[in-house]
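Task card 7
Instruction: Convert sequence to structure tokens.
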Amino acid sequence: MKSFLNRFSLLRALAAALAIGLLAVGYVSPAAAGALNDYAENKTLDALFRGQTLGAPATQYWGLATDTCSDSTAGTEPSGNAYARVAVTASLANWAGSQGTATTVASSGTNGTTSNNVAITWPASTGAWGTLQSVRLYDAASGGNSWICINLTSSLAVSGTGFTVSFPAAALTFQIDN
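Output:
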């Protein structure tokens, strides 16, 4: 049973081989491999093996956090100073198919990888947001559930006004299988 679950490990699937580039006022930092958290793992198991609805968000809300990833926590996001989660619609136009970057048709490739086709950019900070350590995908503009967490390879100190954090097109990639 253990090898079966390992083989079909969608529990950690979306982040199996994850690469992220983070741009903030000219600063580029890749991110370490991330993972689905407990909430997303349970939803995936129930959908794949127990006939339940996955309920994946039609609109994804990307957030930044000042703590590192944990399976069981939603993260500590900045508060105030123009910080807000960034909404991205789950669509063929916004996320590439597995056949290659910038594609806008249903996946037909063999590498199980997708990447963002559009930049994901937060508003410029109007004050300090703290030291950012991870990026998270949520299912609501505030509160809600965290589905995925990705630790940044290098933390990013947003120490005042004028910081713009952005993932350019093709910088945020997820690989499900391989």
